[in-house]
Design goal:
CATH class of the largest domain: Mainly Beta
Structural class: mainly beta
CATH topology of the largest domain: Methylamine Dehydrogenase, Chain H
CATH superfamily of the largest domain: YVTN repeat-like/Quinoprotein amine dehydrogenase
Radius of gyration: 29 Å
Length: 361
């Protein structure tokens, strides 16, 4: 064979062999990569949708999938002297319970499924079994009751005139303990596990922290303006404190309670509620008939909507999609679309709705 031809063939097959080796190497590398790289798997749980390989951004602020279809809205209407039960799947009233007196404060105890309602001028607290929808007891007091919560089966009642919190056994109706707090105590709220109680002391510019185990104030949080209403995030990370005098709210990170930050809202903020993942705080502004949407990431109001007259309290559905606002000087509850930041419905409930609760039944 001619030497030039032989050299050309060797060169041609040498290049082909090199290409073949390279292709085999690339193929083997791809196979090994796909063999040891996990697939992206999306898991659905009762609380949220998570992605094992990517950070998924929800399509709307704090929306949680798989909402409980058995959620019931309970509304305490003061002037109408009744408690109204609303099916949240239809937003229709399913039952009413008549009360003997006008209401001032209320608390729903999830552990026992009971609603406690304070009638300040009558020195009485009504107890309602929510599951059976029956008034089961009236607790009579010697002092004028204010706001209240329940922890470990005991009722903690703010007594503004005495600047104390009374601890009452609802079965015996006996005051077990009187806890001194600050000046002009206004509202009280319990942590999610009821291991701490928070009391706003209007004239002391503090929020007192009560330890139910020892039934005493264990510490206090300094608030630089008149603290009024309180709201606790579902995660337990933040406490929101409203100031009706200066029209702002104070956000307290409970792990670092000295690192408070204030956000200006509208006139006379009252009730507050957090969306499920602490992205937003909704503030009912009693003096301006609005609800402010406050971003916790930005520490500012990002939007607001008009509701009824004197909105006093607000509650957000378990999935974070709806909010219900009690308009204290009106006769209806406003239903908000949290994602759309809009009022979508009004539910007539009777004069003076002051408190709203969501209950799983």
């Amino acid at each position: 064979m001619d030497d030039d031809l032989k050299f050309g063939l060797q060169r041609k097959f040498g290049i082909f062999g090199l290409l073949l080796v390279m292709l085999l190497f690339v193929g083997l590398t791809f196979y090994v990569f796909t063999l040891f790289t996990p697939l992206v798997i999306v898991e659905e749980s009762n609380d949220s949708v998570t992605n094992k390989s990517l950070n998924l951004t929800p399509s709307a602020p704090d929306i949680i999938l798989n909402t409980d279809p058995e959620e019931l809205l309970v509304v305490v209407s003061s002037l109408a002297k009744e408690v109204v039960f609303i099916d949240t799947s239809t937003d229709k009233i399913v039952e009413r319970i008549a009360l003997s007196y006008e209401s001032d404060f209320a608390f729903f105890d999830k552990t026992q499924g009971r609603l406690y309602i304070a009638h300040s001028d009558e020195y009485v607290i009504s107890v309602i079994n929510v599951k059976n929808r029956l008034l089961i007891r009236n607790i009579e007091l010697s002092e004028k009751p204010g706001d209240l919560v329940v922890a470990d089966g005991l009722v903690y009642i703010v007594i503004p005139d005495k600047e104390k919190v009374f601890v009452v056994d609802p079965l015996t109706e006996v005051v077990d303990k009187e806890i001194p707090v600050g000046k002009e105590p206004q509202r009280i709220i319990a942590s999610n596990d009821a291991s701490q109680l928070f009391v706003s002391n209007f004239r002391s510019d503090t929020v007192g922290v009560i330890n139910p185990n020892v039934q005493a104030v264990s510490s206090s949080i300094k608030i630089n303006s008149r603290p009024f209403a309180l709201g606790l995030s579902r995660t337990g990370r933040y406490l929101a404190v409203t100031n009706s005098v200066e029209s702002k709210i104070t956000i307290v990170p409970l792990k670092f309670p000295k690192r408070t930050r204030a956000v200006g809202v509208e006139t006379a903020p009252s009730g507050v509620a957090f969306t499920p993942r602490d992205q937003l705080v909704l503030v009912a502004n009693e003096g301006s008939n609005t609800v402010s949407f406050v971003s916790l990431n930005q520490d500012r109001v990002v939007d607001s909507v008009e509701v009824g007259i004197a909105p006093s309290n607000i509650v957000i559905s378990s999935d974070g999609r709806k909010a219900y606002v009690a308009n204290a000087r009106d006769d209806y509850v406003s239903v908000l679309d949290v994602e759309g930041i809009s009022v979508v419905k009004s539910i007539l409930v009777g004069d003076g709705p002051i408190e709203v609760f969501l209950v799983n039944v």
